[in-house]
Specification:
The chain is an alpha/beta fold. The chain is 41% helix and 17% strand. It has 9 helices and 7 strands, in the order ααααβαβαβαβαβαββ. Strand 6 and strand 7 form a beta hairpin.
């Protein structure tokens, strides 16, 4: 649950009621995530999932990168907009949850377009020469600034990047945060705001999404 949902759950329910419905496979995955994982709040929410789908459908990307698979909810949302010959590479290091995401990836009609890897994202970004049309990052916050530095060379004009949880439960307003994750998220937001190669906007959806487009 996000900082904003806690403040106004009635508004959040209203927004979900007036958003496009999620596919049945996502309903099942969301239900099982809450039943079988210890931190189900980490799943991309209903509203965020629909945002990811709409953006992906607008871009019709050929190459998507996701850092932080968790149980695969956001992955499946992003696949809905893939071009027919497109693919999504999704990275995670949590072997304990891999069976759950693999189960739903196999059930998805986009199964052949999903490349799920148990691999450190920094290592992947240092090794790959791919250019990505769309990137979604919802992973370890302590590495957010480094992810941005490594991802930038792997984008082209028109590429879109989204970082989740960039308001960090409102902690970004702290002037001298002691928590390392808060420090790095503030560093990330500062880096993005000062980078002339991108135009961006922080969307106050759930816990904040920094939405970037490369010029």
């Amino acid at each position: 649950m996000s900082f904003f949902e806690e403040k106004n759950p009635e508004m959040d329910r209203y927004l979900e009621t007036h958003a496009s419905s999620e596919p049945e496979i996502l309903k099942k995955l969301r239900r099982e995530t809450y039943q079988k994982t210890t931190q189900p709040h980490m799943i991309s929410g209903y509203q965020q999932g629909r945002l990811l789908t709409i953006i992906s459908r607008m871009l019709r990307p050929k190459n998507i990168l996701e850092i932080g698979t968790f149980t695969g909810y956001a992955t499946l949302c992003l696949t809905e907009g893939l071009s027919e010959d497109g693919k999504i590479t999704t990275l995670d290091v949590n072997e304990d949850l891999a069976h759950l995401s693999r189960k739903y990836f196999a059930e998805s009609k986009y199964s052949s377009q999903i490349d799920f890897r148990l691999q450190d994202a920094k290592e992947f970004l240092k090794e790959t020469e791919e250019i990505f049309d769309l990137v979604f990052i919802d992973a370890d916050k302590e590495n957010y600034a480094e992810y941005f530095r490594l991802i930038k060379p792997r984008t082209a004009s028109g590429s879109v990047i989204m970082f989740d949880n960039v308001l960090w439960y409102g902690k970004v307003l702290e002037e001298n945060p002691k928590q390392r994750s808060t420090q790095v998220i503030k560093e990330l937001n500062d880096l993005i705001a000062k980078d002339d190669d991108f135009e961006n906007l922080i969307l106050p959806l759930r816990d904040g999404v920094n939405f970037l487009r490369r010029k």
